[in-house]
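Working notes for the structural subgroup meeting. M.R. asked for a predicted model of this chain before we commit to crystallization trials. I am recording the input and output together here so anyone reviewing the notebook later can reproduce the run.

Input as submitted:
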Amino acid sequence: MNHIANLRKSYERAELNESASAADPMQQFDQWLKEAMASEVPEPNAMTLATVSSDLRPSTRVVLIKGYDARGIVWFTNYASRKGQQLAGNPFAALQFHWVELERVVRIEGRVEKVSDAESDDYFNSRPLDSRIGAWASPQSQVIDGRGVLVANAAKYGAQFLLQPPRPPHWGGYRLVPDQWEFWQGRKSRLHDRLRYRQDTATAWVRERLAP
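Returned structure, recorded in token form:
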């Protein structure tokens, strides 16, 4: 017998209310992310990225946030990957952070754009050498015959570039420009706190409570 349906958890760590939350969602996100990092939860920078293909099939994967500011949320990847191809055809996506230990979820939706070449170059050059070679070695999302392909490619590009691999033309950053945020705080008796921020104008956000 499957007992998954009987799993239960009571959420009682914190609360989220309108008066104590920031008027700007990026400020609220900054606070929660820093609290997740300070709490040493596993992979506080991991986020689920959801994209939709041209045939309207959604797909998700976990990526790592590498920057954020008033412009949006940034991550880096292979532009020729499945997610890159989907974003080329449909430049809208959703992100989700789930900090289980803090009983918190952040959901972010918006339009995605590529970051500048300078931003991609700066981050690429800050990566460990193995990671820079790996960006050349992996034809991300493509079918390969085995792990030996990756090992051989890494050896090939390592010998070619030595200690100075340039950023591949197919690799760089994306920025999700949010037009909607949701902050979820688990509460007792499943009466969770959900605050949504939606963009009313280019500079203003409407903050509203959603029923759980």
